[in-house]
Amino acid sequence: MLDENSNDSNNSNNPASTADTAAHAAARPAPRVRKRLLPTLGDARNSIRDTLRDAGLAPGGDRPPLILVACSGGPDSLALALAASFFSRRGDYRVGAVVVDHSLQPGSADVAASARGKLEGMGLEPVLVRKVEVPASGMGPEAAARTVRYAALDAAVEELEADAVLLGHTLDDQAEQVLLGLMRGSGTRSLAGMPAVRGKYLRPFLGLRREQTVEICEHAGLDPWHDPSNRDPAYARSRVRTEVLPFLEEKLGPGIAEALFRSSRILSADADYLDAVAAQAFAELRVAGPAGDVPDSGELLLPEEQLRNLAPAVRQRVLALAALELGGAQPSYERLAAVQSLLRRTGSAGPVQLVGKVSVYRQPRAKTVHHGGSSYGNLVFRKKSST
Which residues contact 126 (CB under 8 A, 6 or more apart)? Predict the structure, then answer.
């Protein structure tokens, strides 16, 4: 009798043996074929991991940090949610999502419901849908929508005690933001674009292209929603996206978006440094107004001589900080230039009016401020009382 371990050549002429072998082969489960990870999806996961760790959110623990994905149902946010779901399956983080329905277009509720279904299918929990109303205001529809969107996200963070919110802005969005800043004639901070981290809001995809998020969705079989307003020429951002950047690529060659992104990274580092220097200088220079401390008097003083000795980039930031401390808004370049002209002590002594009912003036030598103390040699910042 042949040994059952004999090779196939010894059994090749035995029909029963051949049948047994075939039967055993059929009974064995088919080998599991592991689906190859899309390299772009791997990059997306790494970006999320690094951003969370840079924000101080360590994975794991008895109760892992809760991360929310802000999702519109578009390719960027769906790709972000898909990549983030990997960390939920591993138990590194708890991952949920918030879908904000702006109610600006017909069928917006259906879009939100569809996005919710996709997110729940990825295993995200909880998934909230928040319907908001975008008010008509002087700030424009885009800014108004952004304001109510972040208000809804802030409320979700508070309700769920979330540790972070992931936003799906990409390198292309950052390039558009830099160009919009250039169009407005804004300063370094504006040209630095969107920060990767601002409080609990994190943007892990700023180094990824928009086409990569589309690739991730296609690979996963997701059918993202494409917001028609992204191609509406009524919006400046849409014109930059569909007309300006393609024109620059055509006339100057490829790589414009990447170059703008690199510029934003450099300018962001510069702005961070200048802001820190200005904050320290402001803390050292500011003194309370003659009537007492700032919360009571609505006044503060900055010594003119020390202001003149500051580097221009630092000086204009110090002046802006003074206005902001009194409850004003960020002054424009033109208003800051008018305030700095007071330091030359030629022409008008002011006041220069800033947004937010803040005025700035220099005190003539022979006069005192309203409350009786001398402020000669200082710029006086005064907030007009609302009463």
Answer: 96, 97, 160
- Locate 67 and state its tokens: 């991360």
Does residue 58 register a pLDDT over 90? Answer: yes
pLDDT at 29: 57
Token reading at 116: 């919710």
The DSSP bridge partners found for residue 302 are 379
**What are the angstrom distances between the C-alpha of 310 and each of 260, 278, 282, 340?**
30, 9, 11, 12
Task: Give the span between the Cα atoms of 131 and 336, in whole angstroms.
Answer: 40
CA 97 to chain centre: 16
- Decide if 350 contacts 342 (C-beta within 8 A): yes
Q: Roughly how many angstroms between the first and final C-alpha of the chain, as a whole number?
A: 110
**Buried-state track 361-372, b at ≥16 Cβ within 10 A, e below 16:** bbbeeeeebeee
Q: Which residues pair with 95 in a beta bridge?
A: 67
User: pTM for this one?
Assistant: 0.79
pLDDT digits (tens, 9 = 90+) for 361-377: 887 655 554 444 445 78
Query: Cβ neighbours of residue 50 under 8 Å, at least 6 residues apart?
Result: 204
- pLDDT band at residue 11, thresholds of 50, 70 and 90? very low
How is the beta sheet containing 358-362 ordered, strand by strand? 287-288, 299-303, 378-383, 358-362, 352-354
Query: What's the one-letter identity of residue 367?
Result: K
How, if at all, do strands 127-131 and 94-101 pair?
Answer: parallel
